[in-house]
Amino acid sequence: DRQTLVAVLQFLRRSNLRESEEILRREARLLGDDLGGNVATVATSSPGVAAVAAVPPGKGEARGDCGVGPSSQQDPQEVGSPCAARSLRGSPLCWDTRVGAVVVEDQPDVSAVLSAYNQQGDPTLYEEYYSGLKHFIECSLDCHRAELSQLFYPLFVHMYLELVYNQHESEAKSFFERFHGDQECYYQDDLRVLSSLTKKEHMKGNETMLDFRTSKFVLRISRDSYQLLKRHLQEKQNNQIWNIVQEHLYIDIFDGMPRSKQQIDAMVGSLAGEAKREANKAKVFFGLLKEPEFDVPLDDEDEEGENEEGKPKKKKPKKDNVGSKSKKQDPNAPPQNRIPLPELKDSDKLDKVMNMKEAARRVRLGPDCLPSICFYTFLNAYQGLTAVDITDDSSMIVGGFADSTVRVWSVTPKKLRSVKTAADLSLIDKESDDVLERIMDEKTASELKILYGHSGPVYGTSFSPDRNYLLSCSEDGTVRLWSLQTFTCLVGYKGHNYPVWDTQFSPYGYYFVSGGHDRVARLWATDHYQPLRIFAGHLADVTCTRFHPNSNYIATGSADRTIRLWDVLNGNCVRIFTGHKGPIHSLAFSPNGRFLATGATDGRVLLWDIGHGLMVGELKGHTDTIYALRFSRDGEILASGSMDNTVRLWDAVKAFEDLETDDFTTATGHINLPENSQDLLLGTYMTKSTPVVHLHFTRRNLLLAAGAYSSQ
């Protein structure tokens, strides 16, 4: 805008950079005498560095002053960068100024990133600046205090890092010791990392440091609170703090009532603050895809059943045409061909028929009808159980172990058999009815198969929906695809350079997702060596991954304490959910695709409305990390399993009914979480000494749980 331009031109003129001034003037078509305007420029103490002070109140407010705050016209890369940065970046200046290094790059050059801390404020005054602001905030009105208190943590970190970078080590130490106790309890882990950074050299290789420096910390503050803060900093001429607010924080300003302490506490706690409201505005097709239609053959027992009691049995053929019970497509569903999905094979159709027959006998769960729980305990698992999965039809269970093996068990009387050798297969009559039985080698039948191939602990396992394949991912950086016909490894997918923490097949097969220590999730197809999509954006390890039931979206949970939802079609991040106070370890979509449940090391289960991009519930009760979450087949009950050796059942219907998701809430984030965890908790089931690492509802709604007995 014009005022910014004028300010930059004045700065260039004062610095005797006539050539740059001319170029900028020509580009902006401003004449020589246009340098009027009521823009104050503040020169800072170091030579060649200037910061453009904010326009006086009343000017430019609609844009969220000087680029801090929401602005729909800006490029997302530049939202929140001080206005000066853009103009300076375009001019041919090559100094390493503080203003120049603001626009966030994808792969930051370490020295360029850190050079932004070259600010030479008086190190002895930092404590005074901070305690002055602290005093101001603590003495402000209650309604503003909660919102402005969000500034303490990011300012504390940036001021400390600035002192360390400029080698004022004793001042940094004293600053840290004086104020670190005032920070919220959920930042303790980050502060521990920070306390180890005491020298400039330490900052070069520290990832947490770089993340904090390159990604703006997002604070959501009402306009009234923001005006109050701005006025205070301008009256006090507190440039040091104002510069940090301008450059390192993104203040998302909303109109309306300030939020209460409870509302803020529910949403904060991630590495980079809250999500910008813009981040959760994109449309998400959370509806389910239409099921293909085919007829269910009625077998004998069904016909008999129909004679005895007409009603329930007649429903079954209908049940098969899940799509045809209403010919209309779900209005929130993605177009059927939005992403290419594999064709249904005959065996898949057969399996669907079986699934529907089972569904007809499914138990309707609810507060008065809780599921039975069958617990699979891995005894003597001295190899260290690190991952579990159960097939959709509950016929096989797989364990990934720290000794790098993958072990598959049959949990039905039917043993696991491999296909015969090629020589033996050539003797089989291919036309016979039981050809599928004949190709199996009875001599290989056993309850357990061990798969060798990884060279490090196996952290994730996933069966394909058709039960022909198994995925495993490991500390060795690979994802392996195993055949469950031959029990051999078919492919090793190499893409991650570091440990891979989780992998999961799409509900339609063919696609799968993996996430790891390199902070990205990758989407693969079984017949491609290279990933089809790379989802980058998390600031720390991607610890868990989940496909949405319609396979068009992928949710990832991370050690940066956020959950992101990614669009498979174009790789965009369409939702960012913040609120957990520790790394995320479990994710579960509700069967109707509308909601997401997440569990973390903070022992809380959070519930999210995907369409509105809002937190809608919090379930408190667990006392340790939640490693497993699963909705029952019809979505009435949510089961959670934790390191505290318990399985808890929650009333999902009640948790999601009467949601207040009006447009105002969506726009401002004024969420009101009911304190009703105890009303929603339907049951707590203790194991003797077995942490719960996996949960699975069978097709008839029996709950299966699994974990390894620990003798402590």
UniProtKB/TrEMBL annotation:
It comes from Poecile atricapillus. WD repeats lie at residues 378-419, 451-486, 493-524, 535-576, 577-610, 619-651. Residues 121-249 form the TFIID subunit TAF5 NTD2 domain. It is found in: Nucleus. Residues 60-80, 296-348 are annotated as: Disordered. This is Transcription initiation factor TFIID subunit 5. InterPro entries: LisH, TFIID_NTD2, TFIID_NTD2_sf, WD40/YVTN_repeat-like_dom_sf, WD40_PAC1, WD40_repeat_CS, WD40_repeat_dom_sf, WD40_rpt. Belongs to the WD repeat TAF5 family. Homodimer. Component of the TFIID basal transcription factor complex, composed of TATA-box-binding protein TBP, and a number of TBP-associated factors (TAFs), including TAF1, TAF2, TAF3, TAF4, TAF5, TAF6, TAF7, TAF8, TAF9, TAF10, TAF11, TAF12 and TAF13. The TFIID complex structure can be divided into 3 modules TFIID-A, TFIID-B, and TFIID-C. TAF5 forms the TFIID-A module together with TAF3 and TBP, and in TFIID-B with TAF8. Component of the TFTC-HAT complex, at least composed of TAF5L, TAF6L, TADA3L, SUPT3H/SPT3, TAF2, TAF4, TAF5, GCN5L2/GCN5, TAF10 and TRRAP. The gene is Taf5.
